[in-house]
Structures are given as C-alpha cells and as structure tokens.
Amino acid sequence: MAKKSTKNANYTVPGLTTEQGHGVAEILQQRLHALNDLQLTLKHAHWNVVGPNFISVHEMLDPQIEEVRGYVDELAERMATLGVPPNGLPGAIVAERTWDDYDVQRASGVEHLAALDLVYDGVITDHRDALARISDVDPITEDMLIAQVRGLELFQWFMRSHIESDAGVLENSVARTEKDAAKAVKRGRVAKKK
Predict the structure, then answer these.
(1) What is the rounded CA–CA span in Å between residue 190 and residue 194?
(2) What is d(CA 149, CA 31) in angstroms, rounded to the nearest whole number?
(3) Are the C-beta atoms of 104 and 184 separated by less than 8 Å?
(4) Distance spanning both ends of the chain, measured CA to CA
(5) How far apart are CA 193 and CA 61, in angstroms?
(6) Ordered DSSP codes for 125-150
(7) Residue 139 to residue 81: CA distance in whole angstroms
(8) Exposed/middle/buried for 90, CB within 10 Å: 0-12, 13-18, 19+?
(9) What is the pLDDT, as a whole number, of residue 187?
(10) How far apart are the C-alpha atoms of 71 and 148, rounded to whole Å?
(11) b/e code 22-48 from CB counts within 10 Å (16+ = b)
(12) What pLDDT is recorded for position 2?
C-alpha cells in the first residue's frame, strides 16, 4: 500500500506568506469535512423521507445536495491552490469532526426538515467563525465563504418555512439534538390534530 502524503507544498498564493496561506487552508479543512458530511446527510434525508410531504422534501433536497457538492470541490481546490493537500477521505471526516452523526432515520418530511435545520445551524455558525478567522488574511477565501454562507442560509430558510408557525416561531426552537427536533415537530403536529 502506498504511503499517504500529507506534506504541504513549499508555496502558497502570491500576496500571502506560506504560513498565512497554509493557515487559511488548515481552517478550510474543517469546513471541507463539514460540507462533505452535510451533503451526505442531506442525501440520507432524501432517501429516508416519508409521508405526505415526501415529494416536495425529496425534490427540495436534490439541488441543495448538488450545490453543497460544488462547495466541497471549491474548498478543496482553494486548499490545493494555497499549497495544502485537501483531505476528503471518510476516515478523516470521522476522526476530525467536532459533531455527531445525523440521528434521524426514516421519518416524515417535517421531522427531517426540523432536524436538518439544526444541522444547518452548526454548519453556518462554523462557516461564520472561519470567516472571522480569515477575513483579515485572505479576501479571496473570505469572498468564497461569504457566497457559501449566503447559499446555506437560503437553504435553511427553505427548510424553516416548513416548520415555522404563522407567528414566526420554529416548531423545533427548544430542541438541542436532531432527534429532539424531529420529535418536537411530530408532537406539535399530532397535538394539532387532536
């Protein structure tokens, strides 16, 4: 078996020191893991959604998956441009991530959307943290992350529109885990039927 190379290049982009460029790329590695995980999680929900909202949720997730896959490629290519080899291997995601696996299996559309809302909260918050860390160093990477946050926030709004009351309250607002978010929406919908 060939030995995996993790050696960074001895260069980065013009205008940054090698240390700066590699530092930005190291921040992007965690964003790469998060977006790889997100696109797999979205696909999981896409396959496991059931109920009356099946087709609308199933079809709403496809463009999100494709867009997030594009973000993954964009991040990996930026890392390589900065002189750091991107690691998109599943083992690295699991070993280096700071979050747990998505915890909802077969469930209704609104249950998945409530759970995915929390997933988006985490990804967007961490993207914004990365933005704060690189904004003074690399405006090119900053611009890329800003565009990604814009897209992620739009997708989250699509999901929230399904779990928001007409009073502007999210049905999963007290949930801290994906399972709790799914249960909160399910309980609320069952109680309304009674």
Answers:
(1) 7
(2) 11
(3) no
(4) 62
(5) 27
(6) HHHHHHHHHHTTT-HHHHHHHHHHHH
(7) 14
(8) exposed
(9) 87
(10) 7
(11) bbbbebbbbbbbbbbbbbbbbbbbbee
(12) 41
CA 98, CA 101: separation in Å to the nearest integer?
10
Question: Which run of H or E residues covers position 49?
Answer: strand 49-50
Q: Rounded to whole angstroms, how far apart are CA atoms 153 and 181? A: 18
Q: Would the pTM of this model clear 0.70, i.e. be above it?
A: yes
- Rounded Cα distance between 101 and 85, Å, is 25
Using alpha carbons, select from 72, 75, 78, 156 the residue that is nearest to residue 113.
156
**pLDDT exceeds cutoff 50 at 1:** no
Average pLDDT over residues 135-153: 98
Residue 54 has pLDDT above 60, yes or no: yes
**Other beta carbons within 10 Å of 61:** 25
Residue 37 tokens read as: 């995980």
Angle at 91 between CA 80 and CA 20, to 5 degrees: 30
**119-128 pLDDT, tens digit each:** 999 999 999 9
Confidence of residue 193 (pLDDT cuts 50, 70, 90): low
Look over the chain and give the mean of its residue pLDDT values, rounded to a whole number. 94
Give the whole-angstrom CA distance, residue 186 versus residue 89: 35
DSSP 73-99: HHHHHHHHHTT------HHHHHHH-SS
Q: Please name the amino acid found at residue 27.
A: I
